[in-house]
Amino acid sequence: MAFKYKIVIVAVAILLIAILVVGALIYLGCTPIHFHSKPKEGQIKVACVGDSITYGMAIANVFENSYPKQLGDMLGDEYHVLNFGHSGKTSRHGVMDSYTKSPKYKLSHEYQPDIVVLMMGSNDTKGYNWTTKEDFKNAHRELVNSYLNLESKPRVILCTPNSGFFKGKKTSGDYNYGINGDNLVLVSEAVTELAEELDLELVDTHTLTATHPEWYKIDGIHPDKHGAKAMAELIYETITK
Question: Could you give all domains of the chain from N- to C-terminal order, each with its CATH number?
Answer without folding.
Answer: 32-240 (3.40.50.1110)
